[in-house]
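Quick one:
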Amino acid sequence: MLWLTGIGCLIVGIAIGYLVAGRINTTPNKVTELEQKLQDLQRNHAHYRDEVSDHFNTTAELVQQMTDSYKDVYQHLASGAQDLCSTDVASKLLPTSNDGVFGAVAHDDEDDDDDLQAPKDYAPRQNPNQAGALAEDFGLEKVKEAEKE
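Output:
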């Protein structure tokens, strides 16, 4: 009887294994199909990256051309202003040097730097013990004194 039960369990196990294996369907064709889809997606992604790179390269070239064209128009207007307007008006309207708009302005006079001061982003203190303008209680002394009276 023990042998009969063991053989019955073996047959039932083989049947269940066969049914489960049939439902999973892990055939070599399915694996190769999934690998092919993965390769296609990788190719599409690489192609997309190349298109994006080409797009931004073309955009950079066109912006550079536009900047050069704008510079040429500006230079044309500046030279026309020099020829057609008085010297004072032309120098105020359109300076002809590249430094005026397109380049860095170079100062030969170092004395001009002494007159300029960097802007301050704080209020100067009247005395060292005073709270700064960014302190939470800045200016509240007057309010406290008014409340006491």
